[in-house]
UniProtKB/TrEMBL annotation:
Identification of the protein by name: p53 apoptosis effector related to PMP-22
Transmembrane segments: 12-32, 77-98, 110-131, 151-172
Subcellular location: Cell junction, Desmosome; Cell membrane; Cytoplasm
Domain of life of the organism encoding this protein: Eukaryota
GO CC, alphabetical: cytoplasm; desmosome; plasma membrane
InterPro entries on file: P53_induced (IPR015664), PMP22/EMP/MP20/Claudin (IPR004031)
Signal peptide range: none
Family (UniProt): Belongs to the TMEM47 family.
Location, primary (coarse class): other
The entry's keywords: Apoptosis, Cell adhesion, Cell junction, Cell membrane, Cytoplasm, Membrane, Transmembrane, Transmembrane helix
Annotated membrane topology: Multi-pass membrane protein
Length: 196
């Protein structure tokens, strides 16, 4: 019988790997131009976290305006970016925590707490953006919040899951480190009459 779960020594790198995945998704969200896009042709509207672009039906060039001119645009970008920076710091701390024997479980709960802060910052940015964008930017045609915005939410969901695991991981420190002896269950002949 093979049991991995948290008790597997090789599985200790799973949480830093998931944080690395959240960082990659966060980079895609920060750099992507697909926060808001036209739902169908003609594609006349697209927006990123940083700017909003429109074009006429026959025009090939995009006319862009910076969202940093709006207070809510700066707030959305700043909160998401602060969360992303803290996420990178948590990733570095997680790699250190799982690399050095002495430090492994001393600050793992602290990393979990920081990850909850990351999730709070990212959620604030991801909620401010669509609410204020649809209120203050004139939209052309049918639009949808698209793939880059989805990567922002995916990063946040992974961060929340990792935060729970980092907070709960010290409860299983002995299992992860392999310090617990296996328990064997057997029954005596008096309790197992079928063996006679």
């Amino acid at each position: 019988m093979v049991v991995c779960g948290l008790a597997c020594w090789r599985c200790r790198w799973l949480l830093p790997l998931l944080l690395g995945l959240a960082i990659i998704m966060g980079i895609i969200a920060l750099a992507g131009r697909g926060w808001l896009e036209s739902e169908s042709e003609p594609y006349v509207q697209q927006a990123s976290l940083w700017e909003s672009c429109t074009r006429g039906d026959g025009d090939l060039n995009w006319n862009c305006e910076s969202l940093m001119d709006y207070g809510w645009g700066r707030a959305a970008a700043a909160t998401y970016l602060v969360g992303f920076v803290i996420l990178v710091i948590c990733f570095a701390l997680a790699v250190i925590a799982f690399s050095i024997e002495i430090l492994r479980f001393n600050f793992v709960r602290g990393i979990g707490g920081l990850l909850f802060v990351v999730a709070a910052f990212q959620i604030i940015g991801l909620v401010i953006y669509p609410v204020k964008f649809t209120e203050e930017i004139p939209l052309t045609g049918d639009n949808m919040f698209s793939w880059a915005y989805g990567f922002g939410w995916a990063s946040t969901v992974v961060v929340i899951g990792c935060a729970f695991f980092f907070c709960c991981l010290p409860n299983w420190e002995d299992e992860v480190l392999g310090n617990i002896k296996p328990t064997y269950y057997y029954s005596s002949p008096e309790r197992a009459p079928y063996l006679n």
